Amino acid sequence: MTLAFSSAPPRESAPAQTPGAETRLAHVLLTIVVPTFNERDNLRELVRRVGATLGPTGWEIIVVDDDSPDGTHALAKSIARRDPRVRCIRRVGRRGLAGACIEGMLASSAPYVAVMDGDLQHDESILPQMLARLRDGGADLAVGSRHVEGGGSGEGFNALRKTISDGAIRLAGLALKTDVRDTMSGFFMIRRDVAEELAPRLCTEGFKILADILATGAGRLRTTEVGYQFRARLAGDSKLDAKVALDFFGLLLHKATRGAAPVGFVSFALVGMSGVFVHFLALWAAHAAGASFVPAQAFATACAIFSNYNLNNLLTYRSARRRGAAWLRGLALFALVCSVSAVANVGVAAWAFEHDQGWALAGLAGVLMGVVWNYAISTKFVWRK
Ligand code: GDD
Ligand code: MN
Fold first, then answer.
1. Are 263 and 247 in contact (CB under 8 A)?
2. pTM score, two decimals?
3. Counting atoms of ligand 1 from 1, which one is nearest the CA of 209?
């Protein structure tokens, strides 16, 4: 067998090393996991600032990059060649903040691990204080917090984002049963043995890894908060959007049902609800055009399938999104999956209609029976990764 990558062997001698390079074997007390997606223009400054705060040794940074198109991973590795305190995990074929953080934490062998954003919105200067709180044995988890003394988000958040964030915090406090004020923080430090223990039960989907840790460790985690000012992003754009919000509600439901409801189900069900709207619009139009009930219900179902397929493709299954020819094949497959349930749908609806249930109730009965079936089969076959 021949290996045909490149005839030249990889360079084995390290390029000129910067201070700190001789510390390769030094004891690493703290790993800072930095999840990145398109953070190229922030990385050097981040490493510089962490070094300025923590000193030359005792720490490492693990960049977990989801194959950023801007080449963040390549830059991270070129920094790593000069500075052994920096490592990079490049993940391919996967996307997701929570999953990236978990993999980074599990790649550490230090006694303490922190998670910190790569866009310099989190203030690295509180890292020593967080570490001190864990090292004195009083806490398992230290949260970088905008909602305790010294904390704030003046610069980093606009009014709308702040309102949404405050609402989510209240909701999460109820759902997660924790004293932590800033449950939405993406900035925290945890004992690695605790992280290792919780990891198998954490969700790799979604954005809110801290909320998940708090929920999963509820009642056992000793927590503390350290205030910091959430800064404005140095460069690039935020990746938080509608999908992230949907997944957050999915996570709350997932935890509330003790794992019975999958995280993606909320998104799927909401898309399904929008499908009900499409369905009734089409049903009404067909009714107005003088169609009889059963063909009208079938037509409305087809409209809803088309709309649901596209919304799920954009939101629920974004990381497995189908494009081009795969989009068309996916549509055919989804229509096939749905038409099995649509036969049952129309059957149930027709039966209900014959039993004097009226158009609306009969239509609804048909729609409901399809949702759970559709989710299960779609996840398994249509958007299988
Ligand atoms: N590996 C990986 N994969 N990294 C990601 C992904 C992903 O799919 N999505 C985002 N990131 C990285 C970004 O590159 C950045 O370093 C960090 O995760 C946070 O993403 P932002 O897009 O900057 O999020 P934000 O600023 O809107 O929200 C942040 O602050 C909130 C308030 O504290 C996050 O930390 C949230 O978790 C936090 O709630
Ligand atoms: Mn950010």
1. yes
2. 0.73
3. 37
- Mean pLDDT of the chain, nearest integer: 86
Report the Cα 87 to chain-centroid distance in Å: 22
Choose among 377, 350, 343: nearest CA to 365: 350
Nearest CA to ligand 1 atom 8: 96
What's 379's DSSP letter? I
Architecture of the structural domain at 23-237: Alpha-Beta Complex (3.90)
At residue 17, the pLDDT reads 54
Q: Is the CB of 119 under 6 A from ligand 1?
A: yes
295-305 per-position pLDDT tens digit? 999 899 889 99
Q: Which of 210, 203, 295, 304 is nearest to 257 (CA)?
A: 203
Kindly provide the residue ranges of all beta strands, DSSP E only, lying in the chain, ordered along the sequence. 30-36, 59-65, 86-90, 112-115, 141-145, 188-191, 223-227
Distance 242 CA to ligand 1 centre (A): 14
Whether ligand 1 lies within 6 angstroms of the CB of 35 is answered as: yes
3-state secondary structure 181-201: CCCCCCCEEEEHHHHHHHHHH
